[in-house]
Design a protein that fits this description.
Strand content: 15-25%
Strand order of the largest sheet: 1-2-3-5-4
Number of strands: 13
Number of domains: 4
CATH class of the largest domain: Alpha Beta
Radius of gyration: 54 Å
Shape: rod-shaped
Order of helices and strands: HHHEEEHEEHEHEHEHEHEHHHHEEE
Largest sheet: 5 strands, mixed, barrel
CATH superfamily of the largest domain: Succinyl-CoA synthetase domains
Helix content: 40-55%
Length: about 475
């Protein structure tokens, strides 16, 4: 028997029994003093997150297991959420839970073995939000074609805001920027980004409610420049993802460089590889549209000039055609015939008047003076009456001839295609020049030409109504 053990048999102090609580407390103090800081590696099992926020789990290997707990104040700094089967490396201190006499580890830091903590946290957050449907394509909204006001959420001191403003000011003169500054890195940055997104949405809602349409925000850019995974972590936080999804304004996520992906990229309506690319998305259409309009204007000018030249040549050709020559010939013939008839009528009237004067002179010589005067007066009356009637008849015939001439002239003019066109009518032709007389002879979508009094119109048939 060893000497210390032998002596203890006769030592009154050593022989005094300890209570379980005293012994357990002594063991706890000894363990806590010996293992104040220790690293343990093993597999997590029986993980449980208590409603108080504390974590309870077991760390085990092939031959043993160790109870562990992580208080809420410590696990709030751990980026990922432990799961059963995850191989981890834990740092903490050993203690004894006196109520059961179990020794346990109070975990203060936890790192996964193999994959990094941030990578695991990212994958866990991505899978959980995807299962909720926050990344669904049907929730993504199209960007406005011509945004008038663009909201920007980023750091006021970073390069992102300068890049966005430079691109927008260089490419457009109509887009205005509403800037809501936010911290994009460090503790509390995610909460600050979510607050800035909500602030711009509140501004948009107030402007819409008050009818200030010029203050509405059409699209929102949320992002920052490049950095490490730790630097970009604010855009992987759940609070930011839900703020983006709750935004009534379409959101463009522009975080980091082209190879960087965050949760914000998955939940946003559109991802841009960089903040500058996001600015180009909201300003590109105006630049392209102005260029396209300028090209179309030049093409239209050339086309109109070509059409005018063709129309002028066609008018000249028609003016020199045989149909117009025939109309002019008929008008000349009608005018000649009218002039000849008028001349013959005047000769006839003159001859009648001359014969009447001759007969009157002959009778005047034959009759006595008194009787002659009586007959002369009677003859004078008849003559005056006849002259008046003849003159009236001549004038009536001339008026009638003039009316017939006018009617003939109008009829001849009515035969002129240009006269008909001047009254608002038009001539419809196929592209090969064939005249269209029946709506059944054309098909929907067929191209036709419509000749007006001045120029032509090329049209496409959209509807056919049969008589």
């Amino acid at each position: 028997m060893s000497q210390p053990l032998f002596n203890s048999l006769f030592d009154e102090v050593e022989r005094r029994p300890l209570s379980v609580s005293e012994l357990t407390e002594s063991v706890r103090k000894a363990i806590e003093a010996r293992f104040a800081s220790v690293w343990v590696e093993g597999e997590i099992s029986n993980f449980k997150a208590h409603s108080s926020g504390h974590w309870y789990f077991t760390i085990k290997d092939e031959g043993a297991q160790l109870r562990a707990k992580c208080f809420r104040s410590a696990n709030s700094r751990i980026r990922f959420r432990p799961t059963d089967g995850l191989h981890v490396r834990a740092r903490g201190r050993l203690s004894v839970y006196e109520a059961r006499g179990d020794y346990e580890m109070i975990v203060e830091a936890l790192d996964p073995v193999g994959a990094g903590a941030l990578q695991i946290a990212f994958e866990q957050m991505r899978d959980r939000l995807q299962a909720e449907g926050l990344f669904a394509n049907e929730l993504k909204r199209p960007l406005p074609i011509f945004p008038g006001r663009v909201g920007v959420v980023t750091s006021p001191t970073g390069a992102a805001i300068r890049d966005i403003l430079n691109v927008i000011s260089r490419r457009t003169r109509t887009v205005h920027v509403l800037f809501s500054p936010a911290r994009v890195q460090g503790e509390g940055a995610g909460r600050d980004i979510a607050r800035a997104i909500k602030l711009i949405n509140e501004h948009h809602a107030n402007a819409q409610r008050e009818g200030r349409h010029h203050d509405l925000v059409d699209v929102l850019i949320v992002g920052r420049g490049g950095g490490s995974t730790e630097d970009l972590w604010a855009f992987n936080e759940e609070e930011v993802a839900r703020a983006i999804r709750a935004s009534v304004i379409p959101v463009i996520s522009a975080v980091g460089h082209e190879t960087d992906f965050t949760i914000a990229d998955f939940v946003a309506d559109r991802r841009a590889p960089t903040p500058s690319a996001a600015a180009e998305l909201v300003a590109a259409r105006e630049d392209q549209m102005c260029s396209a309009i300028e090209q179309l204007g030049q093409t239209l000018t050339r086309l109109i000039r070509y059409r005018i030249v063709n129309a002028r040549a066609l008018v000249q050709e028609q003016a020199l055609s045989q149909a117009f020559a025939e109309v002019r010939g008929r008008l000349r013939d009608a005018a000649t015939a009218t002039s000849s008839a008028r001349h013959r009528l005047q000769i006839l009237v003159s001859e009648v008047l001359r014969d009447a004067h001759l007969r009157a002179d002959s009778l005047n010589r034959v009759l006595e003076p008194a009787q002659l005067r009586a007959l002369l007066r009677e003859a004078q009356v008849r003559f005056d009456s006849a002259y008046t009637g003849c003159t009236t008849a001549i004038e009536n015939q001339i008026a009638g001839a003039e009316k017939r001439f006018a009617l003939a002239t109008a009829s001849l003019e009515a035969l002129s295609p240009l006269a008909v066109l001047q009254r608002g009518y038009a001539i419809a032709q196929r592209e090969d020049g064939t005249l269209l007389r029946d709506a059944k002879s054309v098909s929907i979508g067929e191209s036709v030409q419509v000749r007006l009094a001045k120029g032509r119109i090329k049209a496409s048939v959209d509807q056919v109504e049969e008589a």
